[in-house]
Amino acid sequence: MNRVKKVVAVIFCLIAVFSMMTACLKGNSPSPVTITETEVVMTVKTAVMSDIAGKKLVDYMDALVAQKEMTYIAEKGMVKQINTLKADASAKQYWMLYTDDDEYGNDAWGVYTYSGKTFKSATLGIVDLPIKEGSTYIFVVTKF
Asked: What is the C-alpha separation between 24 and 66, in angstroms, rounded?
């Protein structure tokens, strides 16, 4: 009986160690996309798309879709829906895209604050906007 208890204890310890290792690995690699009721935040990570040279934001979004991180609908380069979040053009709602990439951001077109950092309106849409490792892109439904 004592031997059975030891075997069970070892099995539980192995399960605990495996669970902690899995949690640590996931903790070191947070999701490249965060979706709330009001915004969608994407940070470009080579873990999602290893070769980002020459790639556009739409390519990165497609890679996120392939990895089942998100879904989206776009028409003529305009984002209409991300997951279940929709912009209603009849109510004059549109997705605004903001970035921390100074080369492709313009504060004259508006800014957005996220986690204490200011993001500028993107100067290009998802089809034309080049991505850069570590850059963050934020979609916000805005009413005009």
From this structure: 24
Tell me the pLDDT tens digit for each residue of 108-122.
989 999 999 999 999
Give CA separation, 134 vs 2, 43, 100, 125, in Å.
Answer: 54, 6, 10, 18
Paired tokens of 94: 């549109």
pTM, whole model, 2 decimals? 0.76
Containing 39, the helix (H) or strand (E) segment is strand 39-43
Q: How far apart are CA 111 and CA 100, in angstroms?
A: 10
Torsion of CA 98, 104, 109, 111, to 10 degrees: 40
Q: Which two tokens stand for residue 61?
A: 């979004």
